[in-house]
Each structure stands twice: as C-alpha cells, then as structure tokens.
Amino acid sequence: MPEEIVESESGSNLSFNGGVKTSSLGETLQFIKGVGPHLAATFAKLGIITVGDVLRHIPRRWEDRTYFRMVAEVRSGELVTMQGIVMGVGSTQPRPGMRITKAVLTDKDGGSFTLVWFNQPYLEKTFKTFQMRKSQVVVYGHAKLSGWILEIQNPEWEAPSEEENALSANRIVPIYPSTEGLYQERIRRLVDSLLKTHLNCIDELLPPEVVAGHSLVSAQFAVKNIHFPSNTSELTDARRRLVFEEFYCLQVLLALRRRANSHLRGGIKFKIDMDKIRRDIAEMVPFELTGAQQRSLQDIASDLTSGHAMNRLIQGDVGSGKTMVALGAMLMAVESGYQAVLMAPTEILAQQHAIVLRRLLEPLGHSVEIATGSLTAKEKSGVRERLISGQSRLAVGTHALIEEEVQFAQLGLVIIDEQHRFGVLQRAALAKKGQRPHVLVMTATPIPRTLTMTLYGDLDVSVLNEMPPGRKPITTHWKPQSKRSQVYASAQRLLIEGRQVYVVCPLVEESEKLQVKSAVQLREHIANEVFPQYRVGLLHGQMKSDEKDDVMAQFKAHEIDVLVATTVIEVGIDVPNASAIIIEDADRFGLAQLHQLRGRVGRGQYSSYCVLIAEPKTQVGRSRMEVMTATQDGFIIAEEDLKIRGPGEFFGTKQSGIPELIYGDILRDQAILEETREAAFDIVARDPDLSESEHLALRKALRRTELGFELIGVG
Ligand code: ADP
Ligand code: MG
Fold first, then answer.
1. Which of 4, 148, 436, 669 has the fewest CB atoms within 10 Å, measured from its CB?
2. What is the value of pTM for the model shown?
3. Backbone dihedral region of 600: left (phi > 0), alpha (psi from -120 to 50 degrees) or beta?
4. How far is the CA of 289 from the centre of ligand 1 (A)?
5. Tell me: the pLDDT tens digits for 287-328?
C-alpha cells in the first residue's frame, strides 16, 4: 500500500489545505526552534507531528475576550466567559468516593463567583498557586445561580501569563483541542510563531476562477485568520474558504470517481444457491431471521450475482441483528469460492464477532481468522499465511486488517461494521485488497437520504426496520444523584434473578487518564460498598487488549455480574443476559451515544432497564434526558439530536458515516457543499485530467492527499 494512503487510526483526514511545499510544512515539530522532543511528544498525542499539522489544528471554538462578563450581569443557565482573581480554594468530601473542590474568584468589579469540580482534588494545588501569584484566571462554562451565589461547575479554565496576554486576552482567542499537560497558551504561542515562519509555504490550490467566482479569500489569509482573526467577519471568511476548499477537493475526487466508475462497472459474479444458504442459516441459529434480515440478504444475493460490484449500506438500529446479515453474506462468498472479511472499529467488537462467526461457521468447515493489533508477530504471520494461501476463507479484525502485509488469495467480499467509525480511506484500503470485491457497509446511524445521495450517489441501501421478535421494550428512568441507592437496590433485584448489569462511568473529556482514574474509583466503590457480594469487573480503553478480551469473555460467560465500563462498550457489544445499564452523569453524553449505550441492553428475552443518573445544568442536558425517557426509536432520537444540538455537532465527525472533515460540516455547511459540487463537476467535465496549467496545483494537491487518484474507483 503506498505511503499516501496510510492513515491514522482515528480516521482519514481530508486535509487539502496547507499540504504544499512539503519541505517546510512537512518539517517535524521537534526540529522547530523552541519546541524540542518533550513538547513534540506531547503534541504527537494529538496526532500533531509536523508544522502543517499544527496549522491544520483548528480551534474547537473561539472566545471573544475583548469583553468578559461581570458577575452582576450574568443570568442562571448562561454560557459565559469570565475573568477573576482567586480569593480562596478548598475541598470537601461529602461522602466516600466523592471529593468536591471549590475556588472562589472575584471579578474586576469585586463580584465573586465560585468554581466547582468533582473528584479532581489536584486542582486545589493549582488554584492555590494562582491565588498566591494573584494570576488572572479566565473561565468558561455554564453559570448557575443558587440564591446569591454564582457557580460554574466543571468550567474550562486558563491562567494566561503576563507575556501570553497578547495572544490570550483582549482579542478573539482560539481555544484548541488539547491533551493533558498541554496548555492553551502553549498551543497558541506555537501556532502564532509558525504562522510567522511558515504561512508563505501555503499555496493556492483553488483555480483562480473558482476563488474569484465564489468570492473566497486567499488560502494564506484563511489559514492565518482561522487561528487569530481580528474580528468575527474575518473568521467567517476564513472558515468559509477552508470549508469550501475541503468540500471542493472532495467533490472533485467524487466526480473523478464517478467518471472512472462508469467504465469500470464489472464485479465478481457469485454463484449462490439461496436455498442452501437459508438451510445453512436455519441449522446454525436457534431463531428465525426477521423479515427485514431476509430482505436484506435477498438484496445482497441479487447484487452478488449481478456481475456488478456490490456497494450496499445496511442501516439498522442497535439490536436489529446486522451481524446475522453480515454472516449470511460471508457465507455466500465462501460458498462461491471466495474469501470474505469483516472489519470492526474496536478490538472488543472484533473479538465478539470472531466468537460468533467461529461458533456458527466452523461446524460447516469454515475456519475464521482474527487480525487485531494485539496479535504476536508469530500469530500475525500465521494469519497472513493462511489468508494469502487461501487456506482460510474468512477473516475478522480491526483496522489491523488493512496493514500492507495482510493479503488475500481471492477476496470477494468486504464488510465494514459500524462504518461511521471508519474513514473513507480505511474502507477503500480494505477493498483494495481484492480485485474490485463486493462491499457491504453497516451502520446504526440514520443518515438522511439527501446526504447519502450527495456523498455516495452510487450506494444502495437496505434498511433493517424490524427488531427480532420477543424483544421487550427497555424501560428508561431518569434519576437524580440522591436516588442512587434506590437505583442500586433495583439493580440488585435483577442480579438476584441472575441478570447482569452495566455501569457506565461519567465522561471525563479533559483527559483519558482522568477518565481511567474515575473508572477505577467507581469500580472500587461498587465492588466494596455497593455490591460486595457480586463479581464486579472493570473495562476501559487503557487496558491491554488481552485484558479487555478476558473481561469481556468473563462478562459474556457470566463470570462477572456487574461491569463498570467507560464508553468502550458503546458500540456493538452483545450480552443478552445483561438487562440493566446505569449511566452516570448521563447528561454529559450526546444523544447518539446514549442511544448506543442503551442498546447494550434489551438484546434478549428479559425486560430491560436503562437508568440515567443526571442532574443536568443546562437545557440541552435536560432535553437529552427527556428524549431518552420518551422514546427508544433511533430515528426519532437522531432527529431530536439534530434539533437540540443543531446539525453542526450532529454531523461533526465520527457519528455520521461521512468522511471525517477538518473544517467542513456536512449539514451545517450544506449550502457550501452544493456550491462546490457544481463547481467540481464543472471542472472535471471540462478538464478530466486536470492538466490545464490553472489546475496543476489542484491536481498536485489531490495526488498528494491521502485520497489519491488511484483510490478512485475503489468504492
Ligand atoms: P446489531 O444490529 O446491533 O449489530 P446484533 O447483530 O448484535 O445487532 O444482534 C443483536 C442480538 O439479536 C444478538 O444477540 C443476536 O443473536 C440476536 N438476533 C439477531 N437476529 C435475530 C433474530 N432474527 N431473532 C432473534 N434474535 C436475533
Ligand atoms: Mg452490531
């Protein structure tokens, strides 16, 4: 696999900007003056390696710090940025496992406000230092008035030093995605200095007629002002330009792909005996397929026998039984003499699929390989060998499957589970392992049809609009913290009946480490204080894969009764005996995520429960809880999610099934998307090879981007 299409685990980035004159934008940070290996390593945690990566690291939001809000004028519930000096700090422990840290600040007018954190005791020391130094601290969060006291819980905060003030105060200030130990002001300083030294490396890749015709600002102006705009209109222009460029490049590639596809329509023609497949499935599984599952399999069978390459999306809500459809399709492939591969986004899920496929398919004489990142070198080479020799026909795995060394003798079918978790490139890279294999992608995310049309005009869709029979609805309750002991008591009744329970830890966005810490604490608390008589397990993202597999296997085998977990269990996990899920601080999760989490229960014959423990501080949080208690329908939830959050976040990145974008947002920027679509199809119609001199920069950029020309036509 050529270098350009290797991509990071987090998915593809359609980054078209700034990738010019690689000699300098490609410089690695550690050799930049004033950076050094330690800081470079910290940035690397964010996937930032080169100068270009820094310039593409766009702010999460911008804060207008030309004006801070004063205590006297703030109303409850508002999202505010305030500034003040620390007057006092202290912590209390109202009950075991819960530590509250408070800091009191006063603003310029002498109004005082309180910052509150839960279980982050180390902040006490940090804020004591600020108090001693009389540093100005800038905070951002939801204001809450209780009586006379203005409180901000879990605020974002920052104490810009004197010398940083030029970048961090009295202006529109960029707030960047960050990681532990990396302060906003450090990022700002680096961005600022790289803009000074490297801005001129950024070339204009949009043809002049496009820039002029669509009233766009120049590439360099855009990059500078996306970071440090002098006013909001510059920011708007900068953003529009970057979004335009990103969509334009994507649309040019799609236009080229469509051209290429039109004379490359052929695909492998499978020979399928549907009756035999049905008999095999009937023998394998103890239940009958739902009508929707059968219809999907029929759709797939007609694609596979048509002589054209299949390109189909299976869309079905959590628990609708997508795995069986994948299994049926894989069976069609092997019985036609081809290999089939199933890729899942997490190791836990890949393992689970491997277990299911092995249990069902091995009795029919089909061995199933598993490829994940955690195999030993020896295991890996064994797997590779059996796949390239054709000895094994079936493989399941994570993105480890797309590594260069993994090759197939006769790959006929590629299936991507939870496809929205992957970038386009990862999907394409897998498909490239065969000669135009059939492609099946599966998702639980409802994608509005108009958008699928825009982005994947050639994708067919089957919908699993029917749940397997016997499912009982999941009863969802929303409870305040004070009712926790009742919640545990109800959970205990289920445990006594022999069911299992998930407890999902609060989301700690600030850092993965903190998240793990809080998960460990919660597990301790539950194991020692709440359910000492039950087996309580722990699962989080920082555990080694074999530990994760062990815990998952134990939970599945009912050797664990209560599983305390982070959102690693969010997708795909299937343990039908688990009939309750308790989600801590539920209002912090997005609706789509809550819906996925709730989908972990109600997968079997038992009445199931989802308990949301939440005391939402915001209207958004409250609405989420209301929606969750009101409905269980994924489509309705997605719609409500759109209404509550606005399309911007809903189609942010990973939830959407749409390639991960840096600047653009498929829904919010739909108008720009349409605009670029026309412009792109126009250029491809006039100059299909992009060989005119005005198009050379674009051609070069597209070639270099990860979505290079050679990917076109891979579907
Ligand atoms: P998802 O669509 O979320 O991937 P799964 O494929 O994991 O759903 O299926 C959820 C559960 O439903 C699994 O335990 C599976 O064995 C079961 N299941 C799938 N199809 C049927 C069916 N037709 N009848 C009964 N149970 C089914
Ligand atoms: Mg699934």
1. 148
2. 0.59
3. alpha
4. 9
5. 999 999 999 999 999 999 998 888 888 988 888 999 999 999
Q: Tell me the pLDDT band of 251, cut-offs 50, 70 and 90.
A: confident
If one looks up domain 67-170 in CATH, what number appears? 2.40.50.140
- Pinpoint the residues of the chain covered by CATH 3.40.50.300: 274-464, 474-631
Tell me which DSSP letter residue 73 carries: G
CATH number, domain 474-631:
3.40.50.300
pLDDT band at residue 455 using 50, 70 and 90 as cut-offs: low
301 or 644: which leads in pLDDT: 301
What is the chain's Cα-based Rg? 27
153-156: long-range contacts at Cβ-Cβ below 8 A with a sequence spacing of 24 or more?
153/115, 153/116, 153/117, 153/118, 153/617, 154/116, 154/117, 154/118, 155/115
pLDDT in tens, 253-265: 877 876 766 545 6
Where are the domain boundaries for CATH 2.40.50.140 in the chain? 67-170
Residue among 294, 317, 320 to mutate when testing ligand 1 (max atoms within 8 A of CB): 320
Which CATH architecture fits 274-464? 3-Layer(aba) Sandwich (3.40)
Q: How far separated are the first and last CA of the chain, in Å rounded?
A: 16
Separation of alpha carbons 687 and 690, rounded Å: 5
Mean pLDDT of the chain: 85
